[in-house]
Amino acid sequence: MLHLLLTMALALPAAAADAAPAAIASAQLLRAADAAYAELRRVADVVGAETALEGLGERVARADREIDQLRPPGPPVPGANALARDLDFLGEEVGRRETEARRWDDQIQERAVQLDAAATRVRRLVETWRLTVDSPEIAALPPLLARAVELRDRAAAVEQIVHKRLASVLEVQDRVLALKLKLADLLASVRAVEAARTQELLEVESAPLWRAFGHGRSPLPAAWLRALDLNARACGRYLAAEPGRIAAQLLLLAVLIAAGLAVTRSRRAVLPPPTPAGRAVEVVSAHPVASSVLLGLVATPLLHPSAPTAFTLAVFVAGLPPFFRVVGALAPDWRRPLRWLAALFAVESLVAIVVDVAPAGRVVLLGVELLGLLGCWVGLRRGGWLRVHGEGRWRAAMAAAGAGAAVLLAVSAVANVLGNVTLSELLAAATLGSACGTAVVATGVAVFAGACRAALHLPWTRSFRIVREQEQPIVTRGARIFRSIAIVAWVYQTLRAFRATQGFGDFAREALAVRLKVGAIDVTLGDVFAFAVTLWLAVWLSRALKFVLDEALLPSLDITRGKAAAISTTAKYAVIALGFSFATLAAGMEMTRFTVLAGTLGVGIGFGLQNVVNNFVCGLVLLYEQPVQVGDLIEIGQLSGEVKRIGVRSSTVRTFQGADVIVPNSNFISAEVVNWTRSDRNRRVDISIGVAYGAEPRRVQDLLLETARACPAVATVPDAVALFTKFGDSALQFELRFWTPVDDWVNTASGVRAAINQALVGAGIAIPFPQLDLWVRSAPPSAPKGSAVQSIGRIEPPTLPRR
Known about the structure:
- The chain is α+β, with helices and mostly antiparallel strands.
- Helices cover 67% and strands 8% of the residues.
- It has helices at residues 2-18, 29-48, 56-69, 87-133, 136-139, 142-200, 209-215, 221-241, 243-265, 278-286, 288-298, 300-303, 309-330, 335-355, 359-380, 393-418, 421-455, 459-462, 465-469, 471-497, 501-512, 525-553, 561-586, 591-608, 610-625, 665-670, 697-710, 745-762; strands spanning 515-518, 521-524, 633-636, 639-646, 650-655, 660-664, 673-675, 682-691, 721-727, 732-741.
- The strands form three sheets. A five-stranded antiparallel sheet has the order 6-5-4-3-7. A three-stranded antiparallel sheet has the order 8-10-9, covered by helices on one side.
- It is flat and about 160 Å long.
- Residues 1-18, 72-84, 267-271 and 787-803 have low confidence and may be disordered.
């Protein structure tokens, strides 16, 4: 029965699509009625599924009201449009709402298609059962007629509901379309103002300053209040539109403050050794909250790339107290010039937001520019604040940056006096903002390095092996990553301040679109850049993964050194291979061409790089067969030392004299290698000694065993053995054999020899010198003169007195 119902349910729409609706025969009516009820239930389910679009109309209406509140940016007039400089914010706001409107439109379109299909199916059902009711065959059968009428009426009621719901959805879709058109107009206005303001940079749009007071008037308090209200509403809209970014920054600040307080509570437990970064550690420990807030400030440009100017200024002002507290403790000589710089930037920002281009505002802006120029001149003098800090290239970079800022401020002041207020505001705001950003980034990098070092000296972090043994690499790499992020944030903020984000983006897109054609290879600079960046990220991730596996994870597992090295190396090369595949896909390279290229390279490698391939294969054998592992003490030919690294082509052996020897991997496979630590890290030491004739052998053996067993480095299993090996020419020969760890066997053998000498002297057993019997025969009287026939005698070496 269920199979029959499913068959009829599927056959009914198909039949309706192929032929016009027709009356149902009496013999098939009840089964068709069952299928029709099922179809109506499915349509009702489709019509009632409104979870995705619930409240969409209200959201569209709210977005429409918010767009009306966004004042279309026009020509700047005193106090009337304080948001005209926030074109990035307005563009981001419009773009975000456009994305949201497109998503709404897609949802509504999908829903409309569902409802339209449901309406078509119900319309066919209504027509089919209307024809069935009008059929004479069914009219003669009252029970079947009643069922047909009931189905016709129910289908008609469902059809009305579907049409009503479809009309409601189409109405919302029309409102979304109107919203999209309004957004497009607003975005076009933003782009037009951007173009106009860019054009104004090279035009004198106002009267010269000495004539401005005769042609204008200072802004009224009402205009000031209106400008402040506009900026406050812009900040409120941004906070309401970006709750995720605000929550992310608050969470980041909470985590940083909690970490800083943890460092403060434990700072006396373990102190880092005195280093150049020790001052930063002391500052972080003394001011944990201020240091945490400063680190959170560095992330503001990345978390809020298109925030309104008022929001950025509010964050800047809120961060001034902790910033100066940290700077005062970290570099007291910089406190005064940085306060001067922050004050100038704050005044310039307030002037740009509130006063705009009124004559009084131009005078204040000119004062800011001249004071900033004076500060640069003081700093660039001999012994000035820009020359006394830093060394080498950093001192030269600071001097060059100060000179560049002085030039920009001078141009800004001249433009202000001549009437090009737009250029003057841009240069002054961008120069001062970039200088403040540089100070924040430099201080933040120093504080991060100190915080990282202080955190690694907490008691619970010192319990990790990777922290104890790799503290400096962790601090160095962490500071490098943070410095890179801070520099990216500073560059973006500087480009935005100079209104160069759009131009830089266009230039980058045009540069990356340049095509390079070499034979059959046709790529763009963008493909090459994507390939290089993806491959670089893969290599960096592979090294980081290998570092974590070697230093943190694998040592805590019960596996051998060789297996640990094989796992970490395999993981590294797997990440690189995967990254290379992704890099190839990112570059848009066709795999067929890559296969041909790989085959060509394979032939070239097979003929021209046989030695390299041989070493590569031997490296794989060493990695997985593990006849030699990292950390083994080996002897290969005249070379002896510890294996420090097993690479793809070669391995590194560090000799006992401290030299690193690069050995091709094929040498480990083709030559005889003595591995002292393959099975275990114990070595047998043989010490030979001779005693004078007359000594009791058993007594000598006991003395040797007692001496060996008294040394703590000598293994008890297997036990030491003392052997009477032979009767020598001048002494009785004995040999002491014992086992000791191979890592320090030389010192152990030396100590045992010294103890044996002391024990034999204490027991009165001499260690004899070699003895020689010499026979001399004298010449007879008849012997020729000068012959060397000598008399027989015995000559012995002198006997040394016993001690």
